Amino acid sequence: MQQEQIPQQQNVTPKKHQLATPTKDKKQNKTNQSTTIQSPQNNDFYSPKNLNPWKTPKSLLKSNHKQSTPDHSILASPYSDRYIPLNVSRNLFNKQIQPFEIEEENQYEELLSENVLEIDENKHVSILNFTKQKHDKVQSAKQLETPKRKIDTLPIKVLDAPGLEDDFYQDTLHWGKNNLIAVGLQRCVYLYNVDNSKVFQLAEPMDNNELSAYYTSLQWNTNGQMLAIGCCDGSLKLWDYNKNTFSGSMNISNKRISTISWANPNIFAYGSKDKAINICDVRVPNYSIFQLLGHTQEVCGVTFDGNELQLASGGNDNKVFVWQMRGGNSNSNNQYISWEIKSHKAAIRALAWNPNSCGILATGGGNQDKTIKIHSSHTNQQIASINCDSQVCKLRFSKIVNELVSTHGYEKNLVCLWQYPTMKRIHQLEGHSERVLYLSASPDESTILTGSGDETLKFWKIFPTQVSNNMSSLFSMCEIR
Questions:
Q1: How many CB atoms lie within 10 A of CB 255?
Q2: Are the C-beta atoms of residues 226 and 241 closer than 8 Å to each other?
Q3: How many whole angstroms separate alpha carbon 282 and alpha carbon 373?
Q4: Region (Disordered): which ranges (predicted)?
Q5: pLDDT of residue 98
Q6: What is the per-residue pLDDT across 62-92, written as a single tens digit (0 to 9) for each?
Q7: Would residue 51 count as lying in a domain?
């Protein structure tokens, strides 16, 4: 490199050099490194070859500013040793200022971002740099996303049921835990074995002299060992599955029994046209324990919750009562009434407790109401109301997924599947030509059974097969000692 030549002078004495910080020239050096630099006092130019970027030029040292320097600068070189860093060193890791990039090293990152991470190629995103805002958006989207599964629009099996009544005040179909389907066809009750598809008659036909006598309701107990059968004359019969015979009967009501619900293998409740709800226990000699009085017209539906603490009843008086079975609030009419619901405008036959959420009750109104309402028995408030545009006949919550099944009558005769708690309609099944008045489910809860006034029974596979819990199997293998 060429060095600057300093003119020789006689009697040169050391001078104190004063430093002056360049202002405008420094900004020019940032923007354009290839331009020449002009001294502020003279017109001599220095080419980039002769300019040492790591030392202060001599021309800048001869400034008119009177700034004192330390004493040790007297012996310093005229060029000084002050370090001025280049701006390029500040952007060594800036991808846009790097002079070149090796494409071969970035191929893996590009393929990963495009095919796996789905990152926009115009945005520079680090693989491990996740922002909190984006993470929250992805998480909320997963929570709102409904599970996608294939639901057959056609039934997997269809059975003929000649004589199945098209009556809103009857409930003569139930699929028990023993995998036997009990169905009442006018004056006879039949059992259908799902395992071997065999059918046999359970109850003997009633006296031929009483042409108006027929079975109006039935239901298996919770373990499938006993079947309760209600008749139009108010009598009730109990059939023992193990003994294959009728174990007893009772005659408390004098009008038809419209609905039956078991709380456990021993206790059940039934409602009748005489406006009363009877609580019974098979271990008691006379079976009857006490009555619940509150409805002013026929009781259309009763159902126990999973904890056996509450009983919901719907009547033809457009009312729903929630009864506390173990000590309720004191009431002038009945001490067991805890809540009275008056929001429906028609008879309530469809009732269902949510097994996945304690205290959640779904109710469905008749032809003049056509709504499904969700209630909370903890707060005694209505949570949601959905207009179905057709009569609501039956409701049932799934134990596998948090979904609700509803069957409808006038005017569409549909089977609908709802997601809870959003109550968004997921799917609807068409196949019955008359009102879908009957609804039950298989022991594994994966298949539902519907019955209609068109005298057909249809099996629908709409829920996934229940998977055993790995944690429960783990705890069953380990014992705390």
A1: 15
A2: yes
A3: 34
A4: 1-77
A5: 47
A6: 555 555 555 554 444 555 555 555 554 444 4
A7: yes
CA atoms of 336 and 339, how far apart (whole Å): 9
Instruction: Please tell me what DSSP assigns to residue 18.
Output: B
Give the chain's mean pLDDT.
77
SS3 category, 59: helix
Rounded to an integer, the average pLDDT of 220-242 is: 94
**Domain end (from 119, 149, 171):** 119
Q: What is Dmax (Cα atoms) for the chain?
A: 151
Residue for token pair 């115009």: 122
Query: Residues near 128 by Cβ (< 8 Å), separated by ≥ 6?
Result: none
- Closest listed residue to residue 219, CA positions, set 265, 251, 186: 265
Q: What is the pLDDT at residue 56?
A: 57
CATH number of the domain to which 302 belongs: 2.130.10.10
How many structural domains is the chain composed of? 2
- Residue 145: inside a domain, yes or no? no
Is residue 238 included in any domain, yes or no?
yes
Residues 6 or more apart whose CB falls under 8 angstroms from that of 425 comprise 416, 417, 418, 419
Percent of the chain with pLDDT over 70: 62
Three-class SS state of 467: coil
State the residue range of the domain holding 270.
157-466
Contact criterion met (CB below 8 Å) for 410 and 437 = no
Q: Are residues 428 and 370 in the same domain?
A: yes
Flag whether 180 is in a domain. Answer: yes
Secondary structure letter of residue 241 according to DSSP? T
Q: How far is CA 423 from CA 112, 305, 419, 447, in A?
A: 39, 20, 5, 21
In the listed set 100, 119, 138, which residue is the last one of a domain according to the structure?
A: 119
Question: Quick one: 295 and 345 in the same domain?
Answer: yes
- Cα first-last separation, the chain: 88
187 pLDDT band, cuts 50/70/90, is confident
Residue 45 to residues 36, 38, 67, 400: CA-CA distances in angstroms?
A: 7, 5, 25, 86
